[in-house]
């Protein structure tokens, strides 16, 4: 019997060659293709056809603590409207590499201040999104 083991410490997020630290408590990174790869069409008489979508876009959402040392890096990239590379690399089993070489900050996080720390969620648009296992 094989038991799968996951360790969050085995997941890295790299922006322009810099490793991010200070992630939020629960889901700290979420990666998703923006569109389906294929769409199915069914005609009036039941004939089926598929269309392959060629949309290369994907979205990566990062959740960082408000004390993360890389908040200033991400704000700078957004302010300058800079293109950058982003890679999410999991050394768990199965190993995965998700991201691309052309990304921009799509949405800056809300800034909330209170009695406790609040997480900050950055939304990143990846123009050449790839997901390799």
UniProtKB/TrEMBL annotation:
This is DUF3277 domain-containing protein. It comes from Paenibacillus aquistagni. The lineage of its organism: Bacteria, Bacillati, Bacillota, Bacilli, Bacillales.
């Amino acid at each position: 019997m094989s038991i799968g083991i996951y360790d969050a410490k085995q997941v890295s997020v790299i922006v322009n060659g810099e490793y991010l630290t200070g992630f939020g408590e629960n889901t700290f990174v979420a990666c998703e293709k923006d569109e389906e790869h294929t769409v199915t069409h069914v005609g009036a008489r039941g004939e089926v056809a598929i269309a392959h979508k060629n949309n290369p876009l994907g979205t990566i959402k990062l959740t960082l603590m408000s004390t993360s040392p890389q908040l200033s890096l991400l704000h700078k990239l957004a302010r300058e409207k800079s293109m950058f590379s982003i890679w999410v690399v999991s050394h768990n089993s199965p190993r995965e590499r998700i991201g691309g070489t052309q990304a921009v900050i799509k949405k800056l996080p809300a800034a909330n201040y209170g009695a406790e720390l609040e997480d900050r969620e950055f939304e990143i648009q990846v123009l050449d999104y790839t997901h390799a296992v």
